[in-house]
Structure formats: C-alpha cells, structure tokens
Amino acid sequence: MAGRSxxxxxxxxxxxxxxxxxxxxxxxxxxxxxxxxxxxxxVGIYSAVGSAVALVSIISGALTGTTVRxxxxxxxxxxxxxxxxxxxxxxxxxxxxxxxxLILETLGxxxxxxxxxxxxxxxxxxxxxxxxSTVVACLNIANVPFQSLFNVHEKFGTIALxxxxxxxxxxxxxxxxxxxxxxxxxxxxxxxxMMSAATWVSFLFYHLxxxxxxxxxxxxxxxKGGSAxxxxxxxxxxxxxxxxxxxxxxxxxxxxxxxxxxxxxxxxYFYASTLQNYVMNFVSNFDAASAxxxxxxxxxxxxxxxxxxxxRVCRVCLLLFLLLFFPLWSELDFLLRLWLGAGIPPDxxxxxxxxxxxxxxxxxxxxxxxxxxxxxxxxxxxxxxxTLFLLCLPAGYLLYRDGFPAYSILICFVVADILNRIxxxxxxxxxxxxxxxWFVKGAYLRPxxxxxxxxxxxxxxxxxxxxxxxxxxxxxxxxxxxxAALVWGIGLSRSERSRLLRHPRVVSFLKRSR
Length: 514
Prior knowledge:
The chain is mostly helical. It has one domain. Helices cover 85% and strands 0% of the residues. The protein contains 20 helices and no strands. The two termini are 35 Å apart. The C terminus is likely disordered.
C-alpha cells in the first residue's frame, strides 16, 4: 500500500510542478509587463485595495481548508457519504459568500473612503478595483466545493490545465493592456476587469465539469438538522481564526505600510510577497500532492502511515526549498532587476531577502499542517498560531511609529513563526503523544547540515568578482548545482538514491544519454 501511495504522490507531484513551472514563468513576465503598463503607483493601489478585500475574505480560506479535509476524511471511510458532505459544504460556502459580500459592501467601502492612502485623483479607480475584487472574492468562495472534488479525487492534471490556461489568458490580456492602454488614465480599471475574467472562466468550468464527472456527488440534496453542520462549522471556526490571522499578517501589514509609507513601498512589498509566494508554491505543491493520501490514511485509522508520510513530506519540502533559496539568495539583486527592469521599486531587494527568510521558517511546517488537520483536534493549534500572527501587527505598528524601516515587520514574522513551530511540537506531544524527536531527526537533520555547508559556500561566493549578466547567471547556475549535489548526497538517504536510480524512467534516460 505504501508503494502505491508513493507512486500516486509522485505522479501528482509531477503534474503539479509542471503547472507551477509554467504559471511562474508566465507570471514573472506578466508582473514585469504590468509594472511597465501601470507604473509603481497604480500597482501599489491595486495591491493595497486587494489587501482590503483579502482581509475580509478570510472566510474563504477557512472554508476551503475545512471542505478539503472533510471530503478527504469521507473518502477514507469505508461507508463515507460524499454527496451528503458536499451538500453540507456547499451550503456553508454559499452562506459564507453572502456574509463576505455584506462585509465588503459596508466596512470595505468605509475603509476605501476614509482610510486608504491613494494619490490625488485616484479614489475613483480604487473604488472600481474594490468592487471588481468583491465579485471575484465571492465567486471564489462559491467555487471551492466544486474545485475541492478534483482535489480529493486527485485530478491534479485537470486542475493544472485550468490554471495554465488561466495564466496564459492573463498574459495575453496584459499584452493587450501594454499595446492599447499603456499609460492610459483608465489602465488600472481595465486591468482589474481583465484579471477577473479568469475567475469567471474557472467558476464555469469547475461547475460544469463536476456535474459531468460526479453527478451523484454534486446532486443538490438539502441536509436537514443542525447536527449535520455543527462539526463542519466548529472546524471552520478555528480555521477561520487561523485564516484571519494569516491574512492580517500579510495583507494587514500591507495596509500598515500604506499608512506609514508611500504606494511605491507597497509595490516593493507586493513584489517581495510575490517572490515569496512563488518559492512557497514550489515547495507546497509537494505538500498538496500528499494531502489526500495523508488525510485518508488518518481517516482510515492508520495513524502510523500518516505520521511517517508527514515526516517524509517535511524533509522533501525542505530539500526542495533549499534548491531555490540559496541560488536566489546568491544573486537576488541581479535577478530582481532582470525580472522587473529599471523601474524596480526601492526597498524591493531588502524586503525580498526578509521574505525569503520568512518562507524558510514557514516551510518547516510542511507535513505537520496536513497531519494536524487530519487529526481533527485543531483548537489549540489554531489559537496559538493565530495569537502569534496577530501580535505581529501591533508590533509592526510600534516599530513604524518609532521610525523603523518598512521591512521591520518581516522580522516580526520570522520570530513569530519560530515560536509557532516550537509550540506546535509541544502541543503534538501533549495531545497525541507524538514522537517529536523522531520527527525532528528524520525531517530536519539532513536539511540543517546542508544549510550549514551552503552558508560557508555563500560566504566564499560573495568574494568572487562577478561582472556582466552572463557571469551572474553562471554564478546562479553554479550555486544551484552545488546545492543540488548536497541534496543528492546528504539530503536523500542511500535507499532513496538507490530507488531513484532504479526507477524505469531514470534508467531509460541514462541509457539514452550514453
């Protein structure tokens, strides 16, 4: 069973990484074109207004995690009723979408009119972007139960095709923006409408495809009785608390930056966050590919298999992260200027470095997050995480009030994440008798040794006299090869290297390369 599970996870991972590579490459081009077409100020407005929407769309994140978890658990049960669980989640999402719409059209409009710091003459554009973003947020919430079906059935190929198609469409629309509406007074409004088009396409596709593939599951059948929703809503409540703290930490900090600094600093934070998201997506995709297997193992009562899988996922995610982190760190200044061009907002480089450090600490939760959700007893995990994340906002406010630079709040993120991981292990041991030493040794020890060796390498690398674009690109490639060699020789065990070398596709490739 473990072998079949590994094969399915590997297949899902390959599909997800193909999607990720395409979307990141296209996204990098799109980001640069948007900066050229709109300018740093309008990009900052779009980011700040989007933060206001994201801050109140925390319900979406909470309901998404709940839906995927309960559907996977239902799939793992021998007598699971997926149609009943789908209808419970669908009803909950529709109510959540209505609640978000009400919040956005009241408190959100108040924020835009009274608190948002925008250049003169741009208030109307900000309100237009806000209304478009409101519609997009509500559609995304209503779409979650249908998209979750593709996740629990491990139809990652379909999800990948939809995401790739959406990314390519966005690129084509941005090219049209550059050609026909570059530096146009209405450019920001046109861009907002263009970005909403992909959401409408996804919404229609997932609804129609779900009714084609799983008509019995999506068949509308009202589930009566409060008990049917109590467990889902209780789980959602704690996820809601956690999601609100995460959004407050990221998007709320964006609003804090807007209050103390200019919109160009918002743009720098936006691009640093974009880089962090790209790196985290590279890692979290493997985590996502393993989620159905891990959760269904716990649902079937096989806790040992679930914990073993969580430890393995954590180590592999850390190794994948290191393959990106050190090459990026070695040539970050050059790569950001290559990506964004001469119009790169000030402070982007320093914010990006701290964002990478935030990601480095965050990735240590890979596998653990899925395992905790699968266990189901999430109350204290969500409470402690949310408390630490929310404390970052007042800490950032105090730092900004005393004149500290914009990146100071990212330092708060790093400290909060370190404390969060320590408390998570304490809770896991207390609530589930989880063997923390076994997990730490198996998940963190090998990556930690690679980190030490790569830090020595980076210290020596900085002494090299690199001049010209090709020398910097060669240095980036060299750092990647050195890190990859350490991941292969130290990060993977002897049995893992042996299995990879014996894999039929690897053997076939080696024969053809001779």
